[in-house]
Amino acid sequence: MSECSCSLKLGLHPFLPSSAEETDIVRTKFPSFVEELTKKTEENYFQEDSPPFKLFPPSVRPDANKLGHGYQFNCEEEPSKKKEKWEKNYKAIKAEQDVANQFNIHFTNCRNEGFLFQPFHTDTYLKGMKEKAKQKRKGDAKRLHRDVDTLPLSEIEKNICECVGVNIGEIIESGKDLDDKIDEEALKLKIKERERFKNKGKTLPNDEDKKNYVKYSQYKKEVYDNINCEMDLIITIAAKRTIIEVEVKSHSDNIGLKSVLDKAAKQVNIGNKIVEKFHGDILREWDFVRVIALPNINKNELEKEACEHCSNFLIGREEMDHFSPWIENLLSKLQISDCTSDAYRKLFARVVGCYSHSEHHSSTVTLSLAEARTENEKAITEKVKGVYSENSVPGESLPETFQLPDFDKENKSVYLYWNPQQLELLLQNEETKKRVLFNSSFGCGKTLLMKHFAHTLAKRESDRRVFYISLAAAAGQKLHESNCSQLMWPAVFDIANCMDFENTRVK
Predict the structure, then answer these.
(1) pLDDT tens, residue by residue, 176-199
(2) Residue 315, class by beta-carbon neighbours within 10 Å (0-12 exposed, 13-18 middle, 19+ buried)?
(3) Which pTM value belongs to this model?
(4) Do the beta carbons of residue 129 and residue 156 sit within 8 Å?
(5) How far apart are CA 437 and CA 377, in angstroms?
């Protein structure tokens, strides 16, 4: 157990497995499904050339409604509220991305097996089987001419309950008690759904239908609602037999800091319990580590609200500036275990396999970083433009009260998509950026940065000539008396560059 002496309960929490042996209940209940997931993940992620530590692109798209499709808002709102609403959601996404970037940098060249998701939604677990159960229920209702809500739980639904650690209790048989049970169950629903649920339940023709009605309501509540949460960041390290959850908060002042920490602690506690429910059968002798990150708060302010033990599992402004010592210190607290079981591969198949198997989330799990950025932009702006085509957003659509830095007032949508390092580079003066060497993997935005800077210079400096030189097709025909290559024909990138700079001053 944790050595915590405050209310946060951060740090290491050993799993409490459901039995003394690793049972792999999912494989027992759904052997074909698990076989498919295992085969898929082995083929895609465990080849000889696959990196041992998998860093997935953002697994859930930004919520377009929260960001107001870029800078466009409901015109009925006051400008000050527009700005406040946008800034709040932007800061939340930026804080999560800043923290995720630090973990990504650390684990990029990690030689140990593991994976990182940002963020992770638990509702994707067994999503394929949940959909299959739902379709079966609809088909049975149609075939039997029954109400879909009054059918008994199917074998698939019962198996799902066992796999996620849910127990749908026995329903009392007598009619009067069943009506009381319907009233009790209705109180668990949203207010607007309660009356409809009670009215339908109490008018059912017999006790069997009422019993099935309540059981199916319990099933939906337990399987879809009560075990659904979002984890801002989840890291699994096989050699350490550890799962780390990081809850990120964008809070930036000391007022209300205690309540923010308490809320975050409650969220990681829920995440811990859900992961244990889902995977406790295969994770014997594993640990769950609860971490909270407030990247905009000084560590000394965080320490005032936490015990000495929990302070080690808090990420503040200082840890963001000097992340390596903090993460190395955390990892040193985790004992290296002789991971001889195949628990990690089973966990990977369950988590990543179910994510990729889910229709709702499959695209972002298998995307490259560049494709993930395209998906994110589409979700935010409802179009694939902006940073990719450098088309500017009309100034009329922006709140007048919101001011951006002078570096790019004509193309405000771009401001959403640069990460902190890219934005810092763009905001530097030209003398500082006179010679810049990019050294990074594909899909990280090198070309986007150079093209954007070329466009900006061409618009701002009318007396300067701007050239964009691409060596994409430089591996052409060798010249006779030298080791140089001669470009013989344009590559597809050269054609694309010409299209990008058409009708501009960039040559």
Answers:
(1) 588 888 888 888 888 888 899 888
(2) buried
(3) 0.67
(4) yes
(5) 27
